[in-house]
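Quick one, tokens below. Sequence please?
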């Protein structure tokens, strides 16, 4: 009997908490975000996927090269 009461309490609590969540507001906000234009696109509107995936790696490699140059003779 106590397990049935615990289960009923959990169901009622879940129901009350789920009614208060702003699901529709979040859904509308996400829909507006997805409909926004792509600001990072180039003027021609075409970017190759390989460049988009390669850019972060290029920045990382450039940063590592700077660190190697600053390190000089390997003092650290």
């Amino acid at each position: 009997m106590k397990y049935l009461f615990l289960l009923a309490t959990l169901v009622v609590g879940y129901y009350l908490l789920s009614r208060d969540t702003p699901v529709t507001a979040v859904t509308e906000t996400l829909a507006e975000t997805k409909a926004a234009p792509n600001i990072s696109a180039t003027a021609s509107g075409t970017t190759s996927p390989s460049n988009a995936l390669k850019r972060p790696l290029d920045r990382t490699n450039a940063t590592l090269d700077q660190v190697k140059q600053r390190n000089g003779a390997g003092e650290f």
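Residues 38 and 45 are 9 Å apart (CA to CA). Helices lie at 2-19, 23-35, 49-71.
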